[in-house]
């Protein structure tokens, strides 16, 4: 961690965060530092960045110990910060947060709860925590399926790690602190996917049955995410039903999670599972097992440079999410209509529901020669503020 001065000292980090076009980001950081200095009359400050993420393939499997391929992306939340005897955060996309560090154990919701939850998790695991003041700025749209909540949690985590732990806490532990905040303070029963992808950075294959994370090269794939305009803020119960129903199928086999059930045993007993648990839980479990296979095939295709096979697998994942996982809604649902639009506009593209589903966003990836046409058509249909052309971010959440 170094004192920040604009120019080469910061620019060396920026290509790994934002790609080649770093000048707009330098200006963004300069404005943030200016705000911080004015607010706190500070001669210097530290800087941190935490990105959004895209789930490429592996929809709703992490909470049952499944496999996921995901990547960090170039949209992020940044903070200018210094240590202090209180926690005070202000920003253009967040309500001001202020509390004493010893209050972190007091559970509450919202953005304040995310900060408290991360700090309490780290403290309860024997890590050091303390106060800080920060000005933040986000270009991650809230409620768009790019995990702005997890990005904010990991921003808090890397600030705590750098100020009070010498940067020695590993990325997975920081991710788990974010998940704890989401589960306990925000009361959303998420798995570890979002936080792990953001903490580690790059393109990552995650196997949540054993906690193994492996980087892979996703080639020249560039995701486009379309926000359908339907918020998922009120859909927690629908999300929660998916891991609960998958766990009910695991319980049929005397297990806690589906990752502990042999795939062959499940398919051999499929009809009995339907009779015992109901059709929807059985279909959601079928999605779990077929999606795990697709993740392995997707990463293998990426290693071999077989882009067309990768796109085919993404399409198959989308169809499985619609048919078996059932998180896309009816034919009139905004998600289904957006998927139909993508295929009608660009038959060569792969598209699928992104993230939790039910509301939110669609992921589309077109071959390079069709990418611009799909993007322009999506902007015309949904508006530029709802269409995000993303690139891979190679660094995880970090202090510059």
Automatic annotation (TrEMBL):
GO annotation terms (biological process): galactose metabolic process
Database matches in InterPro entries: Galactokinase (IPR000705), GalKase_N (IPR019539), GHMP_kinase_C_sf (IPR036554), GHMP_kinase_N_dom (IPR006204), GHMP_knse_ATP-bd_CS (IPR006203), Mevalonate/galactokinase (IPR006206), Ribosomal_Su5_D2-typ_SF (IPR020568), Ribsml_uS5_D2-typ_fold_subgr (IPR014721)
Residue span, GHMP kinase N-terminal domain: 115-202
Keyword list, A-Z: ATP-binding, Kinase, Nucleotide-binding, Transferase
SUPFAM superfamilies: GHMP Kinase, C-terminal domain, Ribosomal protein S5 domain 2-like
An annotated GO cellular component: cytosol
Domain annotation Galactokinase N-terminal: ranges: 35-81
Transferase in keyword set: yes
Single GO MF annotation: ATP binding
Pfam families: GalKase_gal_bdg, GHMP_kinases_N
Entries under PANTHER family matching the protein: GALACTOKINASE-RELATED, MEVALONATE KINASE/GALACTOKINASE
Family: Belongs to the GHMP kinase family. GalK subfamily.
Name of protein: Galactokinase
Protein species of origin: Candidatus Fimimonas merdipullorum
Lineage of origin: Bacteria, Pseudomonadati, Myxococcota, Myxococcia, Myxococcales
């Amino acid at each position: 961690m170094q004192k920040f001065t604009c120019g080469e000292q910061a620019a060396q980090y920026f290509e790994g965060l934002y790609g080649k076009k770093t000048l707009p980001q330098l200006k963004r950081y300069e404005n943030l530092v200016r705000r911080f200095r004015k607010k706190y009359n500070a001669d210097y400050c530290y800087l941190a960045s935490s990105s959004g993420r895209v789930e490429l393939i592996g929809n709703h499997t992490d909470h049952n110990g499944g496999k996921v391929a995901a990547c960090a992306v170039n949209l992020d939340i940044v903070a200018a910060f210094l240590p202090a005897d209180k926690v005070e955060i202000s920003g253009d996309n967040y309500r001001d947060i202020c509390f004493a560090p010893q209050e972190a154990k007091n559970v509450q919701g919202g953005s304040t709860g995310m900060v408290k939850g991360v700090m309490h998790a780290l403290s309860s695991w024997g890590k050091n925590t303390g106060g800080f003041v920060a000005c933040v700025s986000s270009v991650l749209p809230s409620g768009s399926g790019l995990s702005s909540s997890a990005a904010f949690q990991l921003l808090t985590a890397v600030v705590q790690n750098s100020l009070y732990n010498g940067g020695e806490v590993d990325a997975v532990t920081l991710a788990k602190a974010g998940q704890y905040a989401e589960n306990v303070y925000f009361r959303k029963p998420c798995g570890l996917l979002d936080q792990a992808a953001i903490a580690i950075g790059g393109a990552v294959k995650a196997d949540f049955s054993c906690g193994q994370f492996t980087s892979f090269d996703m080639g020249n794939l560039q995701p486009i995410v379309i926000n359908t305009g339907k918020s998922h803020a009120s859909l927690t119960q629908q999300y929660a039903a998916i891991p609960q129903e998958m766990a009910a199928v695991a319980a049929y086999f005397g297990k806690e999670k589906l990752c502990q059930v042999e795939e062959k045993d499940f398919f051999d007993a499929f009809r009995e599972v339907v009779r015992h648990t109901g059709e929807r839980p059985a279909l959601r479990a079928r999605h779990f097992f077929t999606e795990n296979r697709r993740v392995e095939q997707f990463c293998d295709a990426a290693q071999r440079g077989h882009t067309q096979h990768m796109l085919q697998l993404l399409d198959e994942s989308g169809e499985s999410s619609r048919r078996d996982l059932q998180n896309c809604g009816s034919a009139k649902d905004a998600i289904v209509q957006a998927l139909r639009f993508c295929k009608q506009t660009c038959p060569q593209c792969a598209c699928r529901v992104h993230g939790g589903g039910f509301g939110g966003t669609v992921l589309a990836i077109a071959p390079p020669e069709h990418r611009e046409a799909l993007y322009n058509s999506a902007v015309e249909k949904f508006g530029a503020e709802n269409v995000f052309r993303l690139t891979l971010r190679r660094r995880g959440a970090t202090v510059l």
